[in-house]
Design goal:
- This protein is α/β, with parallel strands linked by helices.
- It folds into two domains: 3-229, Spore Coat Polysaccharide Biosynthesis Protein SpsA, Chain A (Alpha-Beta Complex); 231-292.
- The chain has ten helices and seven strands.
- The protein has helices at residues 17-28, 47-53, 67-80, 100-108, 129-146, 162-167, 176-186, 211-229, 231-258, 266-292; strands at residues 3-10, 33-40, 57-60, 85-88, 114-124, 158-161, 191-198.
- Strands 3-2-1-4-6-5-7 form a seven-stranded mixed beta sheet, sandwiched between helices.
- Helix 5 (129-146) runs parallel beside helix 8 (211-229) and helix 8 (211-229) packs across helix 9.
- It is elongated and about 85 Å long.
């Protein structure tokens, strides 16, 4: 059997971490060769001791680095432990450990390299409307870029081969869940979605403290994704918009020429020239970025 490393990022999850670890043992102990590691992100409660007592190997950070850096540490530690397959599951209990085999088996059977647990293909017990809308928007963007039908690009429940972990370098601090999918698709890894259950969270979410702030951050991240992975489309549209404005002003100057004359519009004329060359330069930048994207 391949060696499976279950990685659990945790930050102040003393109330749920023991149950997650216990449920993983119940789901896997009879059939799979596995090890559970918890990457603690500077918890201030008793998460570390609770996880150790439950039987997990714990790697602790001195301070809170955030989700993306913790995910990178998970990959590093799992590879150091000679993982063949890595499973990432959250510590808050919203994903069911009993469904880990659903993610792992397609990889064992050589049907997929990256398996995503899709909440939207399964059953969602509870999800705030704003978060639901944000997740669907992200998934739409991911689908447009990869040309794959991705229903849940934000899912924190996924399994993948060691080759995916080794060859996909996560550099983003904001969109690491989507980055793995985007780069995986670009490197021709087989990506599969399976339906999973998503339970109601006990307590408040740390991701949506301020709905307005969450919405702004979500749109900024969507813009970042297009900028980094579809630079020609992103910069090309900006450049074409500026050229369109230039064209409209140009028509206005033609109108002035045949009516009252263009004298006294030097500022607008210079601005039009600036807009034209700015638009052209942005399009060229998009072309160069598209040629060099990896």
């Amino acid at each position: 059997m391949p060696k499976i490393i279950i990685t659990i990022p945790a930050y102040n999850e003393e109330k749920t971490i023991s149950n997650i670890i216990s449920d993983i043992h119940k789901a896997l102990k009879e059939e799979f060769n596995y090890k559970i590691i918890v990457v603690d992100d500077g918890s201030k409660d008793n998460t570390v001791n609770v996880a150790k007592d439950a039987g997990a190997t714990v790697f602790s950070s001195p301070i809170n680095y955030g989700l993306a850096e913790t995910f990178r540490r998970e990959m590093k530690k799992a590879l150091e432990l000679n993982a063949d397959i890595i499973v990432h599951i959250d510590a808050d209990g919203q994903y069911l450990a009993s469904e880990i085999p659903k993610l792992v088996i397609p990889i064992i059977e050589k049907k997929a390299d990256l398996v995503l647990g899709s909440r939207f293909k399964g059953k969602i017990e509870s999800m705030p409307l704003l978060k639901r809308a944000g997740n669907k928007a992200f998934s739409k963007v991911i689908s447009n870029i990869t040309k794959l039908k991705i229903s849940d690009g934000q899912t924190g429940f996924r399994a993948f081969t060691k080759e995916v972990a080794q060859n996909i370098n996560i550099i983003s601090n904001h969109t690491y869940t989507q980055e793995q999918i985007l780069k995986g698709a670009r490197q021709k890894y087989r990506i599969l979605e399976v339906p999973v259950y998503f339970a109601k969270r006990s307590g408040k979410s740390r991701l949506i403290k301020n709905p307005f702030e969450y919405a702004i951050r979500a749109w900024i991240n969507i813009i970042r994704i297009y900028r980094d992975y579809e630079p020609l489309r992103f910069f090309g549209r900006i450049g074409m918009f500026l050229l369109l404005v230039t064209f409209i002003i140009g028509i206005y100057f033609v109108y002035l020429h045949f009516t009252e004359g263009i004298q006294g519009h030097l500022g607008l004329f210079l601005s039009t020239i600036l807009l034209f060359f700015s638009g052209l330069q942005i399009i060229i930048f998009g072309l160069l970025a598209d040629m060099n994207k990896k």
